[in-house]
Design goal:
The complex is a heterodimer of chains A (209) and B (220). Chain A is mostly helical. Chain A is built from 10 helices and no strands. The chains are: A mainly alpha (209), B mainly alpha (220).
Chain lengths: 209, 220
């Protein structure tokens, strides 16, 4: 083939390079997530990430301005992969909804605790990381509002806001961690603690017309 | 050793301090310097909580001493951090004794919440640093644990009448939930993320605790 390659062949070569670059980027992010999980709350070094991703340190910094940029990309990847849990089913009673929400939340805490700690500990002055942490919390609050809309609709907007603040604090990831690590509760006992507390906090469920 | 030990028994004035007095004076000054260094560290943390460990130079400068003075009293900065944790724990205990323990429900909730809120306002920066660093430091881990145990003990004292009406398991669960709700990070979020004033944040906690606690048994 001459210097002037056919357009289709040139496009195919560029696409191939781009694809490989995307795959390498993905491997780097996955390597970061895996190591951050293991070393939490400390964050891995570029050398460690490169080794895990089977690429050079240079490859990392060709794709991310710095480790902080990689952290942000990693958090974005996690956010995009978290599947929202199903909404409450019509007719589900109070206890069923509380148990469903607690079960989902506790499993999420179990899975994401190391990365969450890493994010919290290493936000530093990073506006982007703080924004991601806030976005994650907002998702949790939205879920709480959805699951307990029936009860929350019976109180004033100010009380609703207060209750959501408290429910979020109660079911925070570190709160889960403390139940398991500090208080030594089993998964089931920790779920029961949350279930009982939420049941006490929520106003009475209005009876159906 | 008593300050007066070793003094001449006669009524005549003693012109120069005796050796034990001199040693005590040096020791006192050294302890005072230690305290000032710790306070300098804590004040730097409060001002810039994103930096978990200010440098020795920054700490010395803030305290008004030399870097040498810092390392004469603390073998390394980790030891300074542990000493700061002990200082903060002692300060929290001194500034936040249980009040209105025998008051009615509303009074006890208000008292416990305001005390806890004050402790959180003062201590959140240090606690964040301790928790982050505790993963690799057993001494710090112990201090974090101690801090939490004291929080739970305080809840037990302040809400004894209501807690006494619960079966053992439920009582434990209640304490765990109250501790989670009144955690220092929960406080920090109310103030920093939700922008609540001190009074409004206290109101959130008071409302929550009132909802959580079972009815107060009638007094005999």
């Amino acid at each position: 083939m001459g210097l002037l390659q056919q357009p289709a062949a040139r496009a195919s070569k560029v696409d191939g390079r781009r694809l490989r670059s995307i795959k390498t980027r993905r491997r780097i992010i996955d390597a970061y997530l895996s190591l951050a999980h293991e070393k939490s709350p400390l964050i891995p070094t570029a050398v460690e990430i490169a080794r895990q991703a089977n690429c050079s340190v240079r490859s990392i910094f060709e794709r991310f301005s710095d480790i902080h940029g990689l952290q942000v990309a990693a958090v974005d990847q996690v956010l995009s992969e978290i599947t929202p849990p199903p909404p409450p089913r019509e007719g589900d009673d109070r206890l069923t909804r509380i148990r469903a929400q607690v079960e989902t939340r506790s499993r999420s805490c179990e899975r994401w605790l190391p990365l969450w700690r890493s994010l919290m500990a290493n936000q530093g002055e990073s506006v982007e990381l703080r924004q991601r942490a806030v976005a994650l919390r907002e998702r949790i609050v939205a879920r709480l509002a959805s699951m307990y809309e029936v009860e929350l609709s019976t109180v004033s907007p100010a009380d609703r806001k207060r209750l959501l603040i408290v429910l979020e604090a109660l079911t925070d990831t570190e709160s889960w961690a403390r139940m398991k690590e500090f208080f030594g509760l089993s998964f089931e006992d920790a779920c029961q603690t949350w279930t009982q507390a939420i049941d006490r906090l929520l106003p009475p469920t209005p009876s159906r017309a | 050793m008593s300050k007066v030990a070793g003094r001449a028994p006669s009524g005549s004035a003693v012109s120069a301090p005796s050796k034990p007095d001199r040693i005590d004076g040096r020791r006192l000054r050294s302890e005072r310097t230690k305290q000032l260094i710790i306070e300098a560290y804590l004040s730097l943390l409060r001002e810039n909580p994103v930096v978990p460990m200010p440098t020795a130079t920054q700490i010395a400068e803030r305290a008004g001493y030399s870097v040498r003075s810092v390392f004469e009293r603390f073998p390394d900065l980790n030891k300074l951090r542990v000493a700061a944790a002990d200082y903060a724990l002692a300060q929290a205990a001194a500034l936040a004794p249980p009040r209105h323990v025998d008051g009615d429900r509303k009074t006890r909730i208000k008292s416990q919440v305001e005390t806890r809120a004050g402790t959180c306002e003062r201590g959140v920066a240090l606690l964040r640093v301790l928790i982050f660093s505790a993963a690799e430091d057993d001494e710090l881990k112990h201090r974090v644990r101690l801090s939490r145990e004291r929080t739970v003990e305080r809840l037990e004292v302040m809400y004894r009448p209501e807690l006494s009406t619960l079966p053992e398991r439920e009582r434990e669960n209640m304490l765990i939930a109250l501790e989670a709700i009144t955690d220092h990070e929960s406080w920090a979020r109310m103030r920093e993320l939700h922008g609540l004033s001190f009074a409004d944040a206290c109101a959130v906690w008071m409302d929550a605790i009132d909802r959580m606690l079972p009815p107060t048994p009638p007094t005999a």
